[in-house]
Amino acid sequence: MIRADDRPSRRTLLGAASAAVLTAGCSADSNGQPAAPAATASAPGQVTPTGTHQAGIATPHTPQPNLLAIIADITPSLAPSAVQSAAPSAAPSAVPSGAPSGPLSAVGRLLAELGETIVALSAGTEPRLVGLVPGDLTVTVGVGPRLVRMAGRTLPGATDLPAFAHEQIAPAARGGDVLLQICASDPLVLSVAAAALLDRAGDRLRERWRQSARRGPAVQVAEGLTAPRNQLGFVDGIVGPHTEAEQSLNLWLDEPAPVAGGTIAVLRRMELDLRRFAGLSAAHQEAVIGRHRDTGIPLSGGVVADGPDLGAKTPDGRYLVPADAHARRAHAAVVGVRLMLRRSYSIDEPAPGLLFVSFQNDLRTFTATLTHMENGDALLPFTKTTASATFLILPGFDPRRPLGSTLF
Fold first, then answer.
1. In this structure, are residues 337 and 369 in contact, taking their beta carbons and an 8 Å threshold?
2. Which residues does residue 210 pair with via DSSP β-bridges, in sequence order?
3. What is one Pfam family matched by this protein (predicted)?
4. Contact at 8 Å (CB) between 10 and 17?
5. 37 burial class (0-12, 13-18, 19+ CB within 10 angstroms)?
6. What is the pLDDT of residues 56-89, one digit of tens each?
7. DSSP states of 38-95 as a string?
8. CA gap 188, 294 in Å, rounded
9. Where are the domains of the chain?
10. Global pTM?
């Protein structure tokens, strides 16, 4: 225990706080270059942006509470023929050998510059941070199907998402060429980082849409593992590839070489009919989801981290997890697919709902799951999807291997 005479005085605390404020601004090093702002005692630690995989997927282990997703298209100013050459019929059938040229080279330069900006933002040395401490900022970059098809139309990530039921999506909110997923504990950092990245891109990117989102309170579901509550009141994202072995099998691409270390992302912005769902009894809500609302434990019993026992029945022969429960209809073993890693966030605008974000090494993991859900999932009638896109999340990068260089 800390004794009273060991505790710092109020004057000491105020002095330390004042010193932190004075040193938190953007200063200059001995060469006159902007230095990283000094982190405050409460600021989360930096997440390394470089390595085998991009940050913002499996790292940090507990996702940051705030997210800003920006979906953009490349513009003709990037390369006059870039957009046209991205069409499936004009795309090369394999990854070009040798140094890329033309549109590929132009895309590669853009991605490499974005990677440089991400490193500077994470280190706190990017002047456009205007003195803000980046903390646990992560920026994850993906490229859409038509850009992937420029590099090779058979590559993972070259396939567009099909249309599904319960969608009402404007053309501008379907698909896209570039994803910038920006996450941080400090919500102020998100828009500042986005402005820095878009400024670096200049007129080479045209923004389609953006979505701010946040994660609900974290619930402990296992040792070292938490999951948030969503706006329906239920713990969300319990099951997934959480260990390194599970992620190696379900999450990361290992071939072909140009995409190794990457993954496939799906983003879906969904409105939730909160009023109608809240009008159901608690028991009815739990039957829709397949888990207990207060604890997250499956209706079949066990502990919160468990997947449901889909064979468990009542004495009179009824399934404990109903046939149309979301936990059953979306169950990977029932669908016959691998696991997806979800980093979903709740949204308020343009309407209350969910920004569903999943990562998987096979797009079929998502498409087959949603197709199976369409055939009887009790949750879907409470949803309406208003934006949808899929992206190849590029492999990790470092100073010797710029972001996107394995493809472009």
1. yes
2. 70
3. Dyp_perox_N
4. no
5. buried
6. 999 999 999 999 999 999 998 775 454 444 444 3
7. PPPTTSPPPPP--SSS-SSSS-SSS--SEEEEEEEEE-TTT-TTHHHHTSGGGS-SSP
8. 32
9. 44-393
10. 0.86
